[in-house]
């Protein structure tokens, strides 16, 4: 199957990385247009596969503090909502330089960050649901204990009345 995509122009590339974000959007970073590590344009892009035809978005327009220069032959993985990019190489004045740094891209807010800012995943609605569930569970356990106790007491009363 050969799909076409609309949206921003995204240059063809190799030696890049791609991750599938939580919202089913593919984030690509870096790469080159030749084996000489010539940087691509844009360095950061997103392919929305939730719509048809698929849609490319140039994320360079939405980001500040991007790592410089563009990397090739690097690794990327998704952790929570963060794309973690590490190692690889870049070219400066036709000299290939190996990279030992790690960069973090927040795929929810489309910005580069210095550290993993773990958000509190418990919203007021989730907290309310947890409390209600705990109360219902507690009430069910109490009712079950009371029911068993009454049944046991009832059986003992029946035995006594037979004598």
From TrEMBL:
The keyword Membrane applies. The chain crosses the membrane at residues 127-147. It comes from the Eukaryota. SUPFAM superfamilies: Galactose oxidase, central domain (SSF50965). The keyword Transmembrane applies. InterPro entries: Gal_Oxase/kelch_b-propeller (IPR011043), Kelch-typ_b-propeller (IPR015915). Keywords: Membrane, Transmembrane, Transmembrane helix. This is 26106_t:CDS:1.
